[in-house]
Amino acid sequence: MKNFLTLLFVSFLCVQLANCELRFVFSQFRHGARQPAHIHNGMDDFGERWDGPGELTEAGKRMHFLLGQRNREYYKGFSTDSKIGGSVYIRSSDYNRTMESVQSQMQGFFPPGTAALINNKKTRDLAHPFINAPKGGWKIYDNMGMTTIKDRVETFPVHLWTSANPFHEFFFNAFACKAFLQIHKDNIAKPKIANFMKKFKAEYGERFSKISGKPIDALDNYWTLFHLFDAFISGMYDGRDMKKPLENGIDLKKFNATAFEFANMDIFDQWNGDDEGFFARWTVSILWPEVIMWMENRIAADKAGNKAEYNTYTLPRFAFFSTHDVTVGSCLTVLNRAFGFKKYYTPFATDLFFELHANDKNEYKVHVKYQSLTLGVVPFAEFKEKLEAQFITREKIAERCGFKYGPFHRN
User: Fold this and answer.
1) Under 8 Å between Cβ of 259 and 208
2) Is the pTM of this model over 0.70?
């Protein structure tokens, strides 16, 4: 405990003090609260009505807006008043919920009032899309003044990992990888998951059948169980009354603990449960080479005397990756393999940080954080070496998965 508090205190000092200067921040996070991923005729297994499977909820947007505000406050000695000076680079998986999550977070990080102005009057007069506008113009842009968007709200480009690229299938359909399909089958057959499913069916089978209208034996299917717990967690985060479970004698507090036990097991024992860590390593092999590149570029620029230089892609001040619970879980799995860092469950809107720091001797270290916890501080050279040892080449991924090696081809 003493060592943990020391690390946390040192990490705080290194953000604030010049002798441990912050040089680059990478943040990867899970999207905010969402609707259940599986809905039948507009309803989940608990009889709750939803209108968009997997879509971000209002609560999810708020979660990320607040994260953005927290990050702006925490990094106020390093962040800037605009995205240009901030040189923010954003990536997201190609899901509505991840794209909306990072946009919500950026609105908190660069809140209304921080966007650029149109200072040139001629530019302002020409900056309208209307054809045959009435004399005097449309009232819609009256009183805009120098403001680009009302309330000086900022916009942000989001670069996507698309499903067209087979190497991104860990986001979209990991079972398209032949090797992982077998890993999944092996993982759910292991005693931990098999015994959980058997115990749950014995305790809740009859009540589940009454609530959902499905046969008890449906609980022998892993994904039936997944969708059940997913719906419950989504409903609880959305403040639903959960009348059907209550009417059938389910203790919501106890069931909630069971749901999160399963969710944790799903991430670390089903998706990331093989000894080889193939899925986790596949994930970071696609996501993190860029992150190491940005750190190397920052160090090189500093040593060349360009400490104040930042640009959007090759030398950002901040990089944000908007992903999923399993993605963050895979990253924690690889950090555990590489450095022995503890793995934590990844609920909605949780975030992982890599902070690159330099001291007055030009020694660079990476501070690895999960939420507000400092998992460890690692010299950059060691950080790079041990992470890259976990990476799998695209040729090897293609070979294991049955993909044709190339950016946009598969068998």
Assistant:
1) no
2) yes
